[in-house]
């Protein structure tokens, strides 16, 4: 199936892919395969993916003039024994719950309250589905949610952090933008089809963002599944590299893709999943020191 798609698309895939061809390729491949696998295969030789060692926060004190960002994600309500290193900013890139129950949200908020970080920024993931106002009735029915609170009421329970949903916040001069959307995957929360629907969300991201948080990774950077597929978002990669160019991108979602990488523009990509593929909450936080803004 994949080979057939690849050979069919060969004429439009060149070293110097035009924007129209890229769009057609992205759309066709993602709709047919449900992943960006073949797309990445066709463009990966044009990109650098360098593995980077995160800061060892236990061993290295924050240098003078730096802002320490501590990234976690995908804790899935398994926070009882979780120890997170201190820093200026704690980022959680979504999937803090299992199915968005009120109990999970309250538990997560209490966990956040115990953390020492001066600033805490959180987005939702596909598992935090009761926060998805766009599709709440259908999701509640599909996942048999018992809580009756509205998404707005549940979000209001997150009192110990700044919750971002397609929104920007400025923290100590850093422009931080967060968005929960991921390419369609069995109809969980904040799912959108690849191509135009999800691209419309990435189009909302302003320029000059320093730290971009999305629940899912872009294709090629922290998105390889245990099956060897690249499940990230091709449209997100294009938005990041051609326009937004943040210093740091933080995601989770593909638990087995956890780690820190850097591209040819010097952009860092942290897949900060805390849980492994088997939902063991043992992966270390990814710590990055950024030069202070002011
Ligand atoms: Zn997850
Ligand atoms: Zn997820």
Descriptive account of the structure:
The protein is of the alpha/beta class and 294 residues long. It folds into 2 domains: 1-46, no CATH class; 50-291, Purple Acid Phosphatase, chain A, domain 2, CATH 3.60.21.10. 25% of the residues lie in helices and 19% in strands. α1 (2-9) packs antiparallel against α2 (19-33). The longest helix is centred in the N-terminal third of the chain and has 15 residues, at 19-33. The relative contact order is 0.18. Bound molecules: zinc ion (2 copies). One zinc ion binds at residues 95, 125-127, 215, 253. Residues 95, 125-127, 215, 253 line the site of one zinc ion. GO terms for molecular function: hydrolase activity. This is Metallophosphoesterase domain-containing protein 1. Residues 67-256 form the Calcineurin-like phosphoesterase domain.
Q: What is the topology?
A:
Elements: H1 2-9, H2 19-33, H3 37-43, E1 50-51, E2 66-72, E3 89-92, H4 102-114, E4 119-122, H5 136-142, H6 151-155, E5 162-163, E6 167-171, E7 174-179, E8 182-183, E9 191-192, H7 196-202, E10 211-214, H8 234-244, E11 248-251, E12 259-262, E13 268-271, E14 286-291
Parallel strand pairs: 2-3, 3-4, 4-5, 7-10, 8-9, 10-11, 11-13
Antiparallel strand pairs: 1-12, 2-14, 6-7, 12-13
The protein binds zinc ion (2 copies).
């Amino acid at each position: 199936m994949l080979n057939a798609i690849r050979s069919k698309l060969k004429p439009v895939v060149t070293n110097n892919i035009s924007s129209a061809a890229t769009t057609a390729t992205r759309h066709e491949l993602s709709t047919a395969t449900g992943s960006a696998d073949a797309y990445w295969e066709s463009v990966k030789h044009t990109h650098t993916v360098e593995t980077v060692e995160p800061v060892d926060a236990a061993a290295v004190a924050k240098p003078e003039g730096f802002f320490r960002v501590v990234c976690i994600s995908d804790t899935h309500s398994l926070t009882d024994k979780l120890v997170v290193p201190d820093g200026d900013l704690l980022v959680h890139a979504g999937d803090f719950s299992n199915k968005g129950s009120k109990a999970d949200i309250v538990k997560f908020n209490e966990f956040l309250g115990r953390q020492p970080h001066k600033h805490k920024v959180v987005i939702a993931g596909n598992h935090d589905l009761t926060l998805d106002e766009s599709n709440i009735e259908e999701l509640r029915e599909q996942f048999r949610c018992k809580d009756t609170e509205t998404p707005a009421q549940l979000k209001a329970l997150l009192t110990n952090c700044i919750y971002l949903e397609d929104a920007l916040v400025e923290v100590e001069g850093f422009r931080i933008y967060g968005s929960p959307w991921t390419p369609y995957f069995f109809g969980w929360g904040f799912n959108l089809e690849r191509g135009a629907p999800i691209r419309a969300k990435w189009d909302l991201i302003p320029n000059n963002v320093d730290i971009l948080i999305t629940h899912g990774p872009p294709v090629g950077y922290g998105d390889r599944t245990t099956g060897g597929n690249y499940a990230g978002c091709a449209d997100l990669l294009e938005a990041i590299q051609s326009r937004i160019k943040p210093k740091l991108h933080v995601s989770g979602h593909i638990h087995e893709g956890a780690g820190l990488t850097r591209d040819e523009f010097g952009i860092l990509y942290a897949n900060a999943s805390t849980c492994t593929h088997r939902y063991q909450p043992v992966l270390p936080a990814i710590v990055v020191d950024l030069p202070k803004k002011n």
